[in-house]
Specification:
Number of strands of chain A: 19
Largest interface: A-B, 48 and 30 residues
Shape of chain B: elongated
Order of helices and strands of chain B: EEHEEHEE
CATH class of the largest domain in chain A: Alpha Beta
Strand order of the largest sheet of chain B: 1-6
CATH superfamily of the largest domain in chain A: FAD/NAD(P)-binding domain
Strand content of chain A: 15-25%
Largest sheet of chain A: 8 strands, mixed
Number of helices of chain A: 16
Oligomer: heterodimer
Radius of gyration of chain B: 13 Å
Structural class of chain B: alpha+beta
Number of domains of chain B: 1
Distance between the termini of chain B: 12 Å
Strand content of chain B: 15-25%
CATH topology of the largest domain in chain A: FAD/NAD(P)-binding domain
C-alpha cells in the first residue's frame, strides 16, 4: 500500500490541474495516465477558451515551441446548409466590442492538439511535486467498511488517499463509487471526427484568421471545424437518443458537401486520422461526489451546457475539488456530507454561473442545431431569406421586401412555438422573471399573436400577385 | 496508431441482451453484428476499436461491459 493525500485518476487537463494544485498545497499527490503519456488517448475539438488565460496564470507561457499545432481561432465562419444539402450562405464573426478582456478580444479559441497540450500541462503538476504514473490503468476503488479509501491499479498495486475522478465520460471512479453506472442517454453525446492534414501556408492563404467554423445544417447535426497549424478537425455529435443511422452517415454528409470538397481541394487537405469520443452534455451536473470521492471535468458532467467547452470547466472544477480536499483533509472528514462543499465551490465559479441557465441552454441547443430535420429545416431558409434576400436585383427593392416578408410569414407557425418554448424560457432564466415581465409577458405575447399574424397577413394580401 | 496487448476489454452477456440493436447503430467502426437473433462482437474488435465506450453507454440492459484496455496499449491519437 502506498499512502497519498490525494489520488487523481486521469492526467487530462482536469487531472493535471488537480494534481498541480494539490501538490502546491503541500499534499502528497499521485496522478495516473493510462496512455504512455498524457494526451495520447483522448480526442477532442479542440479549442482552448480564453477564460483559461484569465484564470490560470501559467497559460501565458504556452508557446508554439511547446505546442507546434497552435493556431488562434480569431474568427469563425458559420455556414448554413439548406434542405437540399447545399451551403446557402455563411456569416463570419469575430469577438465583438462588448468582449471585455484579452486574449478574448483577439480570438475566440486557441486551437491545438491535445497530444501536445496535455503533456505540456502535466509538466506543471510534476514540477509542483506530484507523481505521474503513465501506462497505468486504475481498475478499481479500494473500500473499507463499504467506503472508498483509495484505488487499485491493473498490476494490483494499492494506493490510499482521497480520490479525484478525472477519468472522462466513461468514468471508472463514477461507476465503482456508485455515483453512476452510465449516463442517461440525453446527458451524453457521441462525437466522431476526422483529422485532415494540409500545408500551414494554405490555411493562412485560404482561411486567413477564420480558423473556426460551424456548419449549421438542415440535414445533419451542427458540425464543427477547427483549424490547427497544419491541419483541421471536422466533427459532429448528438445525444445518444437521436441517432437513426450510424453517426458516420451524418459526418460523411458533411465531408461530401460540394462546398466542403472544394475547400479540401484548395487547401490540399488529406485525411490523416479518424477519432471518436463520448462527450457529456447536460443542463445540470449532479452526483458529483461520494464519500472520499470527487468527480471533475467530463467525469462529473461539467462541459458547457450550450457549446460543450470541456477543458476550462475541467480545470476550474479541478481547482474547486482541491480546495475542498484541503479543507476535508485538515478537518479529517472526507464524508459525502463534508464534500458537499465541492458543489458550493464550483457553483461559485464561472462554470457555476454557466449552469445557472444550464437546462435552458442545453434545451435550446437540442431544439435548434441538434434538430436538423425538425427545426433547422425551416430555420436555415428563414434566416437566409432575411439576411440574403434584400440584396437582390430580381425586382424593385420594395417588392423584394414584401416577397421576403411573405416568405418569412410561412415560417412563423414553426418559429413562434420555438420562440415560446425555447427563447422565452432562456431569456427568463437569464434576466429573471421580474425583468422579463418588464420586457414582455409571454402570456400577453401569446394572446397578441393571432392579431399579429392577421395584421401581417392583411398588410401583404394586396401584393400577393408578386409572389407568382 | 495502435499498441498491441490490450487483452479482452469488451464483453457481451447474451443472456442479458434484448436484441435492441442500439450498439449496432452507434458503433462508428461497425464492430457489433447481429445474426440468427444473436448479437456478437467481431473477433478482431481489439484491433479496430477506438475505445469510445458508446456500446457500453447505450446498452441499458447491462449486457455490454466495457473497461479500458491495459495501460499503454490500444488506440493512440497522434492528433487528438
Amino acid at each position: 500500500m502506498e499512502n497519498y493525500d490525494v489520488i487523481v485518476v486521469g492526467a487530462g487537463p482536469g487531472g493535471s490541474i488537480a494534481a498541480r494544485e494539490s501538490a502546491k498545497k503541500g499534499l502528497k499527490t499521485i496522478f495516473f495516465e493510462r496512455g504512455r503519456k498524457p494526451g495520447e488517448k483522448n480526442s477532442s475539438g479542440c479549442g482552448l477558451g480564453p477564460r483559461m488565460w484569465r484564470d490560470f496564470d501559467f497559460m501565458t507561457e504556452l508557446t508554439p515551441e511547446d505546442c507546434p499545432s497552435l493556431r488562434p481561432g480569431a474568427a469563425a465562419r458559420n455556414y448554413l446548409v439548406n434542405n437540399d444539402g447545399e451551403v446557402s450562405g455563411y456569416l463570419m464573426t469575430k469577438p465583438t466590442d462588448s468582449v471585455t478582456y484579452e486574449p478574448a478580444r483577439s480570438w475566440i479559441t486557441m486551437n491545438c492538439y491535445r497530444s501536445e497540450f496535455d503533456p505540456w500541462l502535466a509538466k506543471y503538476a510534476t514540477d509542483a511535486g506530484a507523481v505521474l504514473k503513465t501506462s497505468t490503468l486504475v481498475t478499481g476503488l479500494l473500500k473499507e467498511n463499504g467506503k472508498v479509501s483509495g484505488v487499485i491499479d491493473e498490476k494490483g498495486n494499492k494506493y490510499s488517499g482521497l480520490v479525484i475522478g478525472a477519468d472522462g465520460a466513461i468514468s471508472m471512479v463514477a461507476r465503482e463509487s456508485g455515483l453512476r453506472q452510465r449516463w442517461e442517454q440525453e446527458q451524453v453525446t457521441i462525437v466522431p471526427q476526422y483529422d485532415f492534414e494540409c500545408p500551414p501556408s494554405k490555411i493562412d492563404d485560404v482561411m486567413g484568421d477564420e480558423a473556426l467554423a460551424v456548419w449549421w445544417s438542415a440535414t445533419f447535426p451542427a458540425a464543427y471545424q477547427v483549424f490547427f497549424n497544419d491541419g483541421f478537425h471536422i466533427g459532429l455529435g448528438n445525444w445518444m437518443t437521436w441517432w437513426e443511422k450510424n453517426p458516420m452517415h451524418y459526418l460523411n454528409q458533411v465531408v461530401a458537401l460540394k462546398y466542403f470538397q472544394r475547400q479540401i481541394r484548395i487547401l490540399e487537405a488529406k485525411p490523416r486520422e479518424f477519432q471518436v469520443h463520448l462527450l457529456p452534455w447536460q443542463g445540470q451536473p449532479h452526483d458529483t461526489h461520494a464519500d472520499n470521492v470527487i468527480l471533475i471535468g467530463d467525469a462529473g458532467g461539467f462541459p458547457c451546457p450550450l457549446e460543450a467547452e470541456g477543458i476550462y470547466p475541467a480545470m476550474v472544477t479541478a481547482r474547486a475539488a482541491i480546495e475542498t480536499a484541503v479543507e476535508a483533509i485538515s478537518a479529517a472528514d472526507v464524508s459525502k456530507e463534508f464534500l458537499n462543499l465541492y458543489d458550493a465551490k464550483w457553483r461559485a465559479t464561472s462554470v457555476g454561473e454557466e449552469f445557472k441557465t444550464g437546462p435552458e441552454l442545453a434545451s435550446i441547443w437540442k431544439a435548434l442545431p441538434f434538430s436538423p430535420l425538425k427545426t433547422m429545416s425551416w430555420f436555415v431558409p428563414m434566416l437566409m431569406e432575411i439576411i440574403g434576400g434584400i440584396f437582390d436585383w430580381s425586382e424593385p427593392h420594395a417588392v423584394r421586401v414584401r416577397q421576403i416578408a411573405r416568405r418569412v410569414k410561412q415560417y412563423l407557425p414553426n418559429a413562434i412555438p420555438f420562440i415560446m418554448r425555447e427563447v422565452i424560457p432562456l431569456l427568463t432564466a437569464i434576466l429573471g422573471e421580474e425583468n422579463m415581465n418588464l420586457l414582455t409577458d409571454p402570456e400577453k405575447l401569446i394572446a397578441a399573436m393571432p392579431e399579429l399574424e392577421e395584421a401581417i397577413a392583411r398588410s401583404f394580401v394586396e401584393n400577393d400577385m408578386e409572389e407568382k | 496508431m495502435r499498441i498491441p496487448g490490450t487483452g479482452n476489454f469488451i464483453t457481451l452477456d447474451n443472456e442479458k441482451c434484448t436484441l435492441c440493436g442500439r450498439c449496432l447503430i452507434i458503433c462508428v467502426m461497425n464492430l457489433w453484428k447481429k445474426s440468427d437473433d444473436r448479437v456478437h462482437l467481431v473477433d478482431d474488435y481489439a484491433s479496430h476499436c477506438l475505445e469510445c465506450g458508446a456500446c457500453y453507454q447505450v446498452c441499458e440492459s447491462g449486457a455490454i461491459d466495457f473497461r479500458y484496455p491495459a495501460g499503454g496499449t490500444g488506440i493512440v491519437y497522434a492528433k487528438g
